Each structure stands twice: as structure tokens, then as C-alpha cells.
Amino acid sequence: MALIEQAKPEDVDQVHRIAREVFAVYGDYGKLLPRFFASQGVTTYVARIGPEVVGFVMMGFMPWTGGGQEENPWIGDLLAMGVDPARQGKGIGTELLRQAFELVAQMSEWRDIRQVQLTCAESNQQGLGFFARNGFKVINAQHGSYSSGQAAMRLGRDFP
Ligand SMILES: CC(C)(COP(=O)(O)OP(=O)(O)OC[C@H]1O[C@@H](n2cnc3c(N)ncnc32)[C@H](O)[C@@H]1OP(=O)(O)O)[C@@H](O)C(=O)NCCC(=O)NCCS
């Protein structure tokens, strides 16, 4: 069973290793992730089995442009998640997502959070299936593209 906890600065190399592996097909994306890791306002959780980091999820929060002037809604932005390919299909991704939703629930005590959103490649059937089964719907099928040219889709899940 994996232990889910907030990442420590020394986890960056292991997170980077997983990101490079699972996002290699999307060009530079994996290389960008260490920058997210160190960014203010980004919370990273890791899944550990013993000393080994086997998965991660990164969450940020941003104002939602869909709000009217009277309102000040926010979205939870799931910036990235990945599980070591050798450990996929064992429930670790589901646990990481549960922890990310828990953070959103904590934030929603002092922010008006309307949705959790994320970007996923159109070709990523595994990821799209995983998120669809966890309540996400396509909110923009043409959300730009990754540096490798793959089309990106924006998914959203209403919160709570
Ligand atoms: C998407 C991703 C994070 C999911 O992680 P995961 O650890 O494989 O996720 P889970 O094991 O919780 O769930 C995956 C599947 O395994 C199945 N599963 C869950 N627990 C299981 C268990 N104990 N035994 C067997 N199967 C299990 C689930 O039914 C699930 O099926 P589904 O995907 O069809 O819903 C992982 O596939 C990944 O890293 N993909 C590459 C990167 C990526 O696409 N990231 C998302 C875009 S940012």
C-alpha cells in the first residue's frame, strides 16, 4: 500500500524521473514539471512505497474567468499527475486524486471553488478514461497543443 503525503524538496528528482517517463510522448512537458514543483501556490503530493516515490499529483488554484463581477470564484487546477508505469492499475492514481480533492475541499473553506480542471492529451486514452470514471467531463476539446503537437483537451469536474 502506498503512503500519500505532501512532497518534500528532496523528492524533486524522483518526481522528475516519473514525469519524464510518463510524459515523454508530449515533448517538453516532463521537463517543465520541476518548475511547477518549486512554484509558490503549487501543492505536490507524492505516493511512497518505502523510500521510493511511485506517483505524484500537483495542484494549483486560480481565479475562474467564468465568474461575474460580483463573484470571485476559483478553480482547482490539477497541473499534472503520474504514476510509475510499473505501479499503474493498483489504485495509486485514485488515492492521489482523492488527496487532491481533499486539498480542494480544504481550500473551499475560504475560497469559492466551482470546478477542478485539468489538461489531458486527446490521444491519452488511459488518462481520459481514468478522469471520466472520476467524474471529469470535456469542457474544451481544443485547448491548444503540447510541444510535440498532440492536441490538448480541457476537462472539468464541478465541485463539490
Ligand atoms: C492516469 C494515471 C495517473 C492513473 O494512475 P493509476 O495508478 O494507474 O490509477 P488507478 O490504479 O487508481 O486506476 C487505474 C485503473 O486501474 C484499476 N485499478 C484500481 N485499483 C486497482 C487494483 N487494486 N487492482 C487492479 N486494478 C485496479 C482501476 O479500475 C482503474 O481503471 P480505469 O483507469 O479504467 O478507471 C496513470 O495511468 C498515469 O500516470 N498515466 C500517465 C500520465 C497521465 O496520463 N497523467 C494524466 C494527465 S496529467
Report on the architecture of this protein:
The protein has helices spanning 12-23, 29-37, 92-107, 125-133; strands at 3-6, 43-49, 52-63, 73-83, 112-121, 137-140, 152-158. By secondary structure, it is α+β, with helices and mostly antiparallel strands. The protein has one domain (3-158): Aminopeptidase (3-Layer(aba) Sandwich). The chain has a seven-stranded mixed beta sheet with strand order 1-2-3-4-5-7-6, with helices on both faces. A hairpin with a 2-residue loop joins strand 2 and strand 3. Helix 1 packs antiparallel against helix 2 (29-37). The model has no long low-confidence stretch (mean pLDDT 91). The structure holds coenzyme A (COA). Coenzyme A (COA) is lined by residues 22, 80-83, 88-94, 120, 124, 126-127, 129-130, 133.
